[in-house]
Design a protein that fits this description.
about 220 residues; mainly alpha
Length: about 220
């Protein structure tokens, strides 16, 4: 006969138990267990598989990874962290959560707004950008990449040459791209160029523009 304790030991250290422990970690934390033997020992003695899944889902690590997914893909904190943790425990792996966030209407809108604000157009590959979000590219990183792109540099140049300024040098263009990263709107740079043209045409005796009128980063416009 096989004693019950021996049966519990053989089940806890079986390939099936090992696979289910590993699946729980991957589903809920997105990684392999760091102490598989310890988890198997827990199964053998006091920790049912359901309790393990619960403890993983409500761990600080899971909380941090859910929050990071929302911040990366939607630029905000989760509105129902406990609900997301309950989902991890039952039916929604972390990878599935990241996928659903990346392909949500909210993410689609955030990506589109980033393109419209930074490049003055809609994205040419929305699905590709959503895939990048799902794979770990944050929304902030996407915005920074767009603002520092050659396309953004060309549009900044066009804004100022369109107001009659000479072509900006690479260093000054990069300064305006840094401004674009900060304020995230090409339209505000268009306003800056208009104000700069007004100031460049200013003659002594004319009324000054209102106090606080922006004239560009690092006092370079009109120099």
């Amino acid at each position: 006969m096989t004693p019950l304790a021996t049966l519990r030991h053989s089940l806890a250290y079986s390939a099936e138990a090992s696979s289910k422990i590993t699946a729980a970690y991957i589903d809920e934390l997105g990684r392999n267990p760091d102490n598989l033997a310890g988890n198997q020992a827990g199964l053998e003695t006091v920790t049912p598989l359901a309790t393990l899944r619960h403890s993983l889902a409500y761990s600080v690590e899971a909380s941090n990874k859910i929050t990071a997914a929302y911040q990366d893909e939607l630029g905000r904190n989760p509105d129902n962290l406990a609900g997301n943790q309950a989902g991890l425990e039952t039916v929604t792996p972390l990878a599935t959560l990241r996928h659903s966030l990346a392909y949500s209407a909210e993410a689609s809108s955030a990506i589109t707004v980033a393109y419209q604000n930074l490049l003055d157009r809609n994205p040419d590959n929305l699905a590709g950008n959503q895939t990048a979000l799902e794979s770990g590219t944050s929304l902030i990183s996407l915005r920074t990449t767009l603002a520092n792109s050659s396309e953004a540099a060309g549009k900044i140049q066009a804004i100022f040459t369109g107001q009659g300024f000479q072509s900006l040098g690479p260093a000054i263009t990069k300064e305006w791209q840094d401004v674009l990263v900060f304020n995230q709107k090409l339209s505000l740079i268009k306003q800056e160029a208009v104000y700069a043209k007004i100031l460049a045409a200013y003659n002594p005796g004319d009324p000054l523009p209102p106090i606080g009128t922006p004239i560009g980063p690092f006092a370079v416009i009109g120099a």
